[in-house]
Design a protein that fits this description.
- The chain is mainly alpha-helical.
- It has helices spanning 14-20, 28-42, 50-71, 102-106, 117-145, 148-171; strands spanning 79-81, 88-92, 100-101.
- Strand 1 (79-81) and strand 2 form a beta hairpin.
- Helix 2 runs antiparallel to helix 3 and helix 5 (117-145) runs antiparallel to helix 6.
Amino acid sequence: MTGTRIKPKQSPFARQYRALGLSPDADLAQLQQAFRELVRKHHPDVNPHIRGHDRFVEIVEAYRVLRERMEHAPDDENWGQCPKCRHYRDLFDPLGNGRCCAACLLSAPYRGRMLPGPVLKLARHLGVIGAYSAAVLFTTQFVATQTPLAAFAAIGLTVFGLGLLAYEVITA
């Protein structure tokens, strides 16, 4: 039988602890002390070497992640690594569309990113139905009262409904 080594389970923050030269059981005071020492040593104004800047950025990011992690409860399910941008932040799942951070939710390239495709399509269909229903309502009011305002509203809502319908056909 060949010897198979089982790797011990590492902390999901092992890389950050290694960047700061700390053990995973370090407390907040040790974290702050290690951060201050490393920042003084690797700051770009003190260390002009090209790798000094990369190391400085790594140290700052590791400190930010570990500091936020220490501020959250260990069993906080709403904090972790965003699957889209890979940063450690508070995570949200607005409509069951998958958890991600607020920055990813708000930086959507199109307005429907937060909504799943079928929900967005349903909302647009309901908009068309609502416009036509309001047009029918204003048409019946015009027939009953003969007011030109109701006629203009009915025509406007009909045109709006046709515009929404045309948008649905074009984007389908």
